[in-house]
Design brief:
With 214 residues, the chain is α+β, with helices and mostly antiparallel strands. Strand 4 (169-182) and strand 5 form a beta hairpin. It has a domain at 69-204. The longest helix has 81 residues, at 33-113. It is built from two helices and five strands.
Length: 214
């Protein structure tokens, strides 16, 4: 039934304009209750989801950074341990090389002093240097080391006279160098020690045989 004063079939102004008619009791332009209730929840869920994604991204970055730091630290520890072990082994080999060189000097000293008087018999003859350079072999743990000896005599055996003389005493001076090495030169395990000694040999014609030692 049309309102009084309006022809039958005539539409209301809102209907003529194509605008929806609000239900009775609701102000015009107000959203339905369901839409008002859903809008804050959706926004809240979007904010929560966005925050969770950001937190996961930050956690991934932190985990990668931590793995890189731990990997670098592990590599550093391994490198330090390897160098320490190599340094300790090199120190031990250095001590052994020193002992091998000293053993070479002892061998040379025995040859020059000629305790049995077999190399230069008699009260006036002084021994010549052994063939130089000379490589000797050592026993036991020092066997892997190559020991090379050199000898220089003053005055030389070919000089005339070939000794220093003081009354009945005759003297010669020997300079001996012993070089002990292990491994190939330039190798990571190469080690070398060199020792030098000055040895005097003196004979006194009046001293008891066979050494005639001064």
């Amino acid at each position: 039934m049309s309102p009084p004063g309006r022809p039958k079939g005539d539409r209301l102004p809102a209907q003529r304009e194509g605008c929806p008619v609000s239900p009775p009791g609701r102000p015009k332009g107000e959203a339905p209750d369901a839409q008002r209730a859903a809008t804050p929840d959706s926004a809240r869920r979007n904010r929560v989801a966005g925050g969770a994604a950001a937190e996961r991204g930050f956690a991934y970055i932190a985990a990668i950074f931590l793995l890189v730091v731990l990997g670098a630290f592990a590599a550093f520890v391994v490198d330090i341990g390897t160098k320490a072990a190599a340094g300790g082994a090199a120190a031990v080999q250095g001590v052994r090389a020193f002992e091998a060189a000293r053993a070479g000097l002892e061998w040379a000293r025995f040859q020059i002093r000629d305790p049995n008087g077999t190399l230069a018999p008699g009260p006036t003859q002084l021994p010549d240097c052994f063939a130089s350079p000379r490589t000797i072999a050592l026993p036991a743990e020092l066997a892997p080391f190559a020991v090379v000896l050199t000898c220089a005599r003053t005055p030389s055996a070919g000089a005339s006279p070939n000794f220093h003389e003081d009354g009945d005493r005759r003297l010669a001076i020997y300079t001996v160098t012993a070089t002990a090495s292990f491994g190939a030169p330039g190798g990571t395990d190469y080690v070398e020690r060199r020792l030098e000694a000055r040895i005097e040999r003196c004979k006194d014609a009046a001293a008891p045989a066979p050494r005639h030692a001064c």
